[in-house]
Predict the 3D structure of the following.
Amino acid sequence: MVPRDSAQDGRTATPLELFFDLVFVIAVGIAAANLHHALSEAHFMHGVTSYLVVFFAIWWAWMNFTWFATSFDTDDWLYRVMTVAQMAGVLVVAAGIGPAFNDHDFTLVAAGYVVMRLIMVAQWLRAARNAPDLRRATLIYAWGIAGVQALWIVWQVVPPGAAGWAMWLVIAGLELTVPIIAERRHQTPWHPRHITERYGLFTIIVLGESLLASASAIITARDDQAEIADLAPLAVLSLVVTAGLWWIYFWAPHHESIGRFRQSIQYGYGHYIIFAAAGALSAGIEVEIDVLTGHSELGDVAASLCVTVPVAVFIGAVWWIVMRPHATRIVNIAVPLGALVVLLDPVIPIPITLTTLVVVAIVALLVLTNPVSREGAEA
């Protein structure tokens, strides 16, 4: 398990990485579905908090595997077996999402998460044996991850409440700190194009949940002809918004956003917001369907905000993390302003109409404005 070449030509996602992502489709879908039910029942604080906690486990486990793979993927039999074992941990997390939302029982989520993370410890120890120049970094990863997992196990016996949430924040902060300490002196050789391709693929996965919600509106309209006049426009507008968010995300050259370590941390950690917002969008669309069909306790304004807030957060986060360095002044003014205008959507009687118009306007502006490439400017 020797380090990969960070400048390797033609480096792309492997079939194993794509297979690995499939289990995260399940976990993200279940998390979004539970958020949808919590929001429809007007349990906003509980639903959003549970969603963010569960999504942290999903995102952090995926991200750590992804960054390890970009540096040390050997694709031999042992690496494959350990990756499949991590997939089993993701399925355990997925099975525990329902109890986490409904009963505040994070036992299964924590168990699956710890399984994934301890397998990563074994992967880092294996890398430490074969990469002497990176031995310090790989060992910090291994023992840092192991120590934090012990704290997650202790967290399970802390009673729910303020103390439990405070401890969660501390342990989550320690998880985020391990890579910063490990990479401080000797950085593992990440491949910019490979790593950003992996993030792009995962973004497509979470946006795909919104397409599923759009299809759900069509199916519901088919089954209930009385609601077709409301649900059909929602399905169309949801598709347009999702496609627009995809367009916005892939406008800038992502691989130029992680040239330095500080940039890579901002890019990698910032995607928690992007991924979580994209997943929450599908829940918001489902909430709109519930309201239009009379199956929700929410009013029109609250239901509209369940869609517009994730869209605004997604656009704002993508602009801040990826677009700003590559955009003209007008783009850097119009995009964040558009994200704020989206929040005014509840004033329009037809759901997510203003959101759709704003997203389409941003895409039109981006089509007319080529991103500024750092590589081209340096050349």
In short: Residues 15-182 form one domain.
